[in-house]
Fold each of these.
Amino acid sequence: MQAEPHWSSLPEPDAMHLVQAVGAGADIDISGPIFAFIRSINVFDVYLRQGLVGEGEDCRRTARIRHGSYDANGQYHWRDGSSAALPSAFRGDEGFGTTCPGVAVRAVFVDWTDHNGGYGFEQVDY
């Protein structure tokens, strides 16, 4: 006889909010140069859409970008961002804000500098 699979239930919405809360930051001092790799982590939540619409072929653009990063106290912050602030390694925004080629991208982009000074990034389109 096979055991029934175990399914986890989702937490209540109030509990999920508490889990997503950032808190007071790191419990150690991360302001020194040895922790620069933590402060170098950037997360971009990106939604870009651009295209011609209507008979007059007006260019319609929508950009919603949030930028997350750590401060010297280890506190994680989200703030509004812009397409101009996206790292050059980001792909999918080519032509955005110009003569109106079709652009449609939703992605999470993370970049960082490791402890040796090497640049790394990952982009997940969805």
Amino acid sequence: MKNLSIKARLVIVHTLMMSLVVIIVLGILFSISGNEIDANVRTALENRVNESYENIAYRDGILTFNNDFIEIQDGIYLSAYELDSTELLYGRLPYGFEYNLVFEEGNIREIAIADATYYVYDMSVPIEGYHTIMIRGVVSIADAQREFRATLRITLILLPILIILTALVGYIISKRAMRPVKRITDTVKEIRSSHDLSKRVKLGKGNDEIYRLAHTFDDLLSDVDSAFKREKQFTSDVAHELRTPITTVKIAIDDILKRDDLDKELKEELMIIQKKNDMMAKMVSELLALSRADQGRLEIKKEKIDLSDLTLMILDSFKEMIKDDDIDLLADIDPEIYIEADEVLIMRLYNNVLENARKFTKSKISVALKSSDDKVSISVSDDGIGIKDEDKEKIFDRFYQADTSRNKEGSGLGLSMVKWIAEVHDMSIDVRSTLGEGTTFTFITKRI
């Protein structure tokens, strides 16, 4: 039951409870009805025999019976006998019934003959001008209960239909009752997929537990949305404000380094400061770009681009950057691969992934661009330190660094930018890594 949805559990419980109630009620009704029918048959038999004398007369030395005596009413057969013998004077008996059954006056008996069971009632009746005779009434219990049994069979046939209808009604009721819960779930899924915290459940007016839950959830979303907006604005403002002093420091250091009177030690220290300043400038640039992306202010211009030529151009530039690093750059690029993308963002994606590989590789970086049918695959591999399994889901988080002691120059923002660029281009990302052997980033997108 724990694996079933609440709606399914409600339907099952509702169906079982309703079915149990119906079965109990029907059982009680049929029990009462059976006893009532039995009592009515006995009463009708007794009354029919008691009233039968009205249909007998003795005139002119002849004992006569009218047609009502021989007529079968309510399944009751009447017959008349001489008092001291079993000689039948007049009447009818059920087929197969014993004619010579001993009389037992004033007592309704249950007699089983062959495969049939009967109620038998005997009564002596004095006839004016004639002597006393014996009147016998016989009724078949099976005939009397046939209608009851027919009703029982119909009920047993209709019971499964009734259970199915009960389940259907329970499903409809449960579905309507759980509709607000489904709306809450759909809203959460939509927020997760679109990352849009402005969406709300908006169930409307209501005061039950689910409506109060939805209203509380909407209030929580409003608070979280406001907090995220303030954080994004703060990040954007800080990044923007830092650009000016960083640029000023860069210009100042560049001017100082141009002087001829600097000693070697001071020049080396200034170059270290310049390198750190450049790292900070890059970090601020990434942070500002991500902040604008979060706020929807980063303009994306998608167009048809030759990804093969762009990749070769980027690799040529990257080769110049690593010429002093003793790193081999291997490339396997299929020609004339076109995609629809923002060229500047794709260049940024390449640069960030390649820079990440450069930080951790030992001696080799491999880049492959392949196409198959309508799919394009971009792979960047290194033979570096690798990534732990528990860190794979976190490497795209902002400012996350799996091992800061081995991260030479990272800010923790490069792969976050890569993830965002991949998302806006509908690219899937696959990261495969083995500790001590290296890591491969693979991007899959659509070819045009």
Amino acid sequence: MCPDCMLAFMDKLNILFIEPFYGGSHKNFTDGIIEYSSHNFDLYTLPARYWKWRMRGAALYFYKKIEKPENYDLLFTSDMMSLSDLKMLWGSKCPPSIVYFHENQLSYPLPEGEKMDYQFGFTDITTALAADRLLFNSNFHLNSFIQNMPGFIKKMPEFKPLWVVDVIKDKSSVLYPGTHYKGAAASKTDSNQIPVILWNHRWEFDKKPEIFFNILKKADEILKDDGVETPFNIVLLGENFQKMPKAFIDAKEYFKERILQYGYCKNNKDYYSFLELSDISISTAIQENFGISVVEAIQAGCSPLLPNRLSYPELIPSSLHKDFIYNSDSDLLKKLINILKTKNYPKIESHFDKLKWKNNISCFDEFFFNFVKEITT
């Protein structure tokens, strides 16, 4: 059978999907691909814990777990997999491979008091070299990875393989992940409603919750001085994988009964209901390679307030930066107070409809198909 005839016959690819860290944004992404794709997937996962050990040893587990990798048209996996290890173990049985980078260890900020373990940065590099193609979840993320690579490699005392930068760059592309929100944006027009401020990020240091709550406390004090009895209520969503940050403990006491939800929602229906209930979505993150939580909040009708850094300026249309992108903590406070006083919640969800999985999946399906076509012709 000629290659073109063969590809037409195998319109639906058989894809081996390995996710060593099946939780959070990785799970969100994985479930979306499989639910909406026109291709056939076999999914193998490990739980979302001990991420360092996943990067070190997941390849050994999947090497034995998956008996016939050669039966697949394509291997699709994430940056939590040491692909170079897996390809070495499987040898010629390993299918052509694509790695999706949700994050990378070259630019990820470290918690206070923690030193960089260089092994994980080199695992990212060798995984990228071992893959046939690389996908990143934003242009910001791709550029950050490429720009940080030379400085990381130069930490080596000698024989510095700077050639890897161009090799990795040449096989890298960007595809935004899709989102699962399927509803219509909630109405925010009730002038008697107490505004609801949303946090729907991970409860971890890189999202800077202490800054978020500090801004809320300042806004609360200013508006109460102006005679507003209850300036706003709060919805606190998101996963907490490690120790509870002190900022959340303090906020629970400070805001007390004004917190409408405190903690992770296991039920998606409840989660999206809280997004629709909320009016304003704020991020104070210092690490965000895409921002699924922010996009879904916008799609549910929230007005975003996002820092002028990371992936956010890329996601928000430049014509809307003035209203929704802030340049400093004081600028965030000013914009927040203005929204709370006017109770005017501009909705921009129409700009993000294209990122819902039902609209976004074709980008992935076409990429997979064209990749297999390229390597078989």
Amino acid sequence: MPSNPAGGASVTMTSDPVTSRVDDRLLADLEAVVGEQHVRHTPGDVHPYSRDATPLFSSAPDVVVFPASTQEVAAVLRLATERRVPVVPRGAGSNLCAATVPVRGGIIMVLTRMEQIVEISAVELLAVVQPGVTTAMLADAAAARGLLFAPDPGSRIVSTVGGNVAMCAGGLRGLKYGVTRNYVLGLEVVLATGEVLRTGGRLWKDVAGYDLTRLLTGSEGTLGVITEITTALLPMPQTALTGVAYFPSLAHAGRAVSGIITDGVVPATLEFLDQKCIGAVEDYAHLGLHRDAGALLLFGDDGAPDVVKRNLQRMADRCAAEGAIDITVGGAVAESEALLEARRCSLPALSRLQPLTVLEDATVPRPRIAEMVDRIDQIAERYNLLIATFGHAGDGNLHPTACINPADGDAAVRVERAFGEVFQAALDMDGTITGEHGVGAAKLPYLQARLGADQMALLRRVKAAFDPAGILNPGKLGS
């Protein structure tokens, strides 16, 4: 096939669906690119890559490849485009929306061998890393230089920076610090045709041309394969402290959240657990939580010690004014870490209740959090499901979590229908179907309800411009 000047294969977009055509010839070509030991194609070897952290979604790839360089990524993509074979880029597979499930088979491209921290610059407040570097690795390396990598997804120990960028991951610090897209300065990305682009760069201010860096961030592997990330860092806060307040109901907690924001405090931590979560966490971790409370609110701040102490007191006072039945403020970093454990162990605590947990996310305006949780409870009761809810009170991002036994007849079907109603409820409240987990395959059926037909058509045109053969993560965004 002829090549263009940038080295990518020339492709004419067609309406034919991408199909899996992995044969012996392609396997040999892939082995020639990445090495025989870095290609897996037997059923036992590819099975672990048929799913990610999303329950109820599974589809087997035909082959799994582990490239070690940008050049190898480009070569694999040129082969895939020439043969019209799907390619699904993947990091650690910790996403929660089936974004890395190969719904049309083909090639899974695992980028975890590309795990080098290329540079950390304290002068420029940035890091340059390959996509397979884990969030925790980068955070620890930055901390050793007195710097903060602000994005903080719940799966930070295993999630990769490349995956964070592809999914635009959020986390507990989202209200004060924003999400992944707020820190991506530049990208190296390989298009489906094998062309290598560099978008953005090392600058905090750069408005030259369309913001392709921002477009690629959160594109879920449908527009290109990210092979290097330049990300902003911040000075490490001097201290961080946390408090916890118990309320008779989520409505009381919601009023406290609104009051805290109205008072002019932007907390580093503002998280909530409903009553079902409180009980599950206490059974699991024995932290001494008040089981009789209707809701628990974790609040915290970081920065200069005197500012943090003052802000924590202001937040505690607001909680008291809104009817908190008990308030504890951590007086030291160790005590604050113990308080935060209640939020961090919510999912493992709930996972003990039934063999399978289905964790979703939806976002509503802050003043409607309590109303949304009430609606979730009503939906759960109607479908005879246990759904507990925790989440980020500061930005209205809720994580309703269904605990089910797959052996319970049609439980999986009931969960799917229940969450369809949850997403619609969020839209009815001027919210969205996902605040931080992404769309993937799991939420694609609900995307048009959020964006409308005109935006969906535009997504498809953008997709065609980046990936004319349609090989990148087909069956997801823009498909």
